[in-house]
Specification:
- The strands form 6 sheets. Strands 1, 10, 11, 16, 17, 18, 22 and 23 form an 8-stranded antiparallel β-sheet that branches. Strands 9-4-3-13-12-2-24 form a 7-stranded antiparallel β-sheet, covered by helices on one side.
- The protein contains 20 helices and 24 strands.
- It has 588 residues and is of the alpha+beta class.
- The radius of gyration is 22 Å and the shape is globular.
- The chain binds glycine.
Length: 588
Amino acid sequence: MRCSLRTTTAVVLLLGACRAPSNSQTRALAIEPTVPPRQSVTFPDGWRFKAGEKAAFGEHFMIASNQGLASDAGSEVIRAGGNAVDAAVAVGFALAVVYPVAGNIGGGGFMVIRLADGRSATIDYREVAPRAASRNMYLDASGNPTDESIIGYRASGVPGAVAGMAEALSKYGTMSLAQVMAPAIRMARDGFVVDSSLHLGLRSSFGYIGKFDARDIFYNNGEALAPGTVFRQPALARTLQLIAEQGPKAFYRGEVGDSLVAAMTRGGGIITKQDLELYQPLWRTPIKSTYRGYSMFSMPPASSGGIVVTQSLNILEAAADTLPAWGTAAYAHLLGSAFQRAFIDRNSKLGDPAFVNVPLDQLTSKGYARTLAKTIDPNHKTPTPPNGSQIVDGMHTTHYSVVDDQGNAVATTTTLNNGYGSAVYLKNVGFFMNDEMDDFASAPGKPNMFGLVQGEANAIAPGKRMLSAMSPTIVLDPKGELFLVVGGAGGPRIITATSQVILNVIDNRMSLADAMRAPRLHHQALPDTLMVETNGLTSEAEAGLKRIGHAVRYLSGLANVNAVMRVKGGWEGVSEPRVGGTGGTSSR
Ligand code: GLY
């Protein structure tokens, strides 16, 4: 049956099956938000979305991801009595089946957990550089970066997804791997219906993944799987079944790993059996910060996400008790300037904390933010120093947000880095490998193939985790009740998009639907450009920004966010509207 909904027709079409309400009185029903009422917003003329749309609504739980079938997998697990962690792991494995562009078992990710009893945790299951990796491994004879960190067998870090999800489940879940993986295994074995989004994604990626073994799986004579095709993945189903039965050792010490290593060896990759055996996910202390009385739990390094979101919001809090009106040049200038300052630090100071002394306390402190806020001139932009550095992260990743009927919350972001990772598909075991090695600085201190200078703190070293921008974040309201679960995909734009959804619901008091649809902007220090979504500025705001000195560059879309927010009587969920309806919420 369908959920109880307050939603548009378009959103209804994205929703999966929902269960009938249970008789139990849930926490979600008992607690009302203690945040101010929402306010309407006017978007610039010509902006692609209308304000005032409705979000999906669930009285008891809500899951928002980039694929409705994956959200439904989480829903199925909660309906069977699982909690948010069980559901998140179910969504993660399901995305590996139904969202191969970014969902994965050949990549890695980060998960932020906040339980209704007040406990919080984060787990880092980022890939690590293989032991044979070396600082200059992606430089040619002239010292210039090659594309081997992006495409092909040498581009992969040691995958962490299976180990990380299994570890999260064993510590905070209530179900077995076999139970939470059942929907994923079923969809891999029996198939799922290819939608137009998967079809179009494959069609535009033939030049990339068509170079390797995925050609025989995702294409018929070079034609991408047609919409409506029932797509079965028997090799992946078998792999998932082995993991469900044997646990992560099937991947790291067993048949799946053996097959992975054999393929790597054949293709000239460097991941060995010992690399797999040594892989460990890491529990890390969440970054706990506050913003205007709200509390936030976010991801520490090896992701930069938690530090940079926290630092940006701290700068904004220090800069103004009340932000300038949303949509004005003053607002965009202040946000852009805060992001610029936080990214200057990010790009030069952050890396794997096992290898680099990360000044986390300083970067996330209110005092440091006050110092940086004072450097923002309301009338003039500050140029990024030419010796500032920039790290470019892959643009395809996927985030999902889960809240269960007890008020437990999970924010997870996972990635292969670029869409379909390194393009290397392991056909015997049925999955794509990541190209996460490109998230390292291949040539610290020297411009890379895009003319960018990258940070020494993120240089390649064996066993090191590459810096990420993934920003899974959980926000509590001023009374300490769960308020928002959010995060996104899109390389460095993850950080600024996640921050803006938070600002939109806290400072600008938008509904979640408006907060997600509002035009986004982005500044990452270098290039020293204020990036804005096309038609996302009024002409007055654009003229104002130019007067202040910003180089404004328009882009067709910035990031891909999936979020859940508490509202009166339950939860709203919105999956990214910019990606043409591929996402989906699932709720009751
Ligand atoms: N591969 C994208 C990121 O980790 O930020």
